[in-house]
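Protein modeling request. Please complete all fields; requests missing the sequence field cannot be processed.
Requester role: graduate student
Desired output: 3D structure, token encoding
Chains: 1
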Amino acid sequence: MNPSKCVKCIDFPCLDVNKDCYVVPSIEVDPAKIKAFMVSEAPPIEPNDYFYAKGDPFYMQTTAQAFKDAGFRVTSMEDVLDLGVYITTAIKCGKTGYSISSKTTENCSSLLESEMNRLPRIDAILLMGDTAIKSMNYIAKRNTGKRLIPSGSTYKIRKKEYFYNEVRVFPTYLQTGKSYLIEKSKRKMIAEDINTALKYQ
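Delivered output (201 residues):
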């Protein structure tokens, strides 16, 4: 299964994103082998920094460090996939500002839901940052009538257990961006959440 061939934005209705940066992972994935679904924020402006780009993309550098902090020997996206983890973004187009509007997050949550539904054997969902959490809440509200993750500071809510269709959901912090490398307390919490999520499988 190649996600980019199954999950597509048709009309690009969002006004606060860079559509030139639109991307859905274009890789061959065996759905039966994916046990964890990791949702980051948005694609980078520079395509060569994206998770699945060739070489040593920056998004993969920080993500690999997050897995290493969690106790997993990871140096490439192939290593992550071998762990049974699929990584994508909540927003499929690039950011044009610091924040992303609620409307854009809601629009793109439909694509994220379609992407997630193609991986029927996942046991854990890792929501990396506020945008991913909001996107998951839109998905949950469409299907259950209520949000899944309560509002509040991430460090307060991350210790509680949340489930969506019997899949455990972990709200945590964003593992991409230059700030990841200097925020030691967040790095520790991200590592804890990745470790717990992968052991939960």
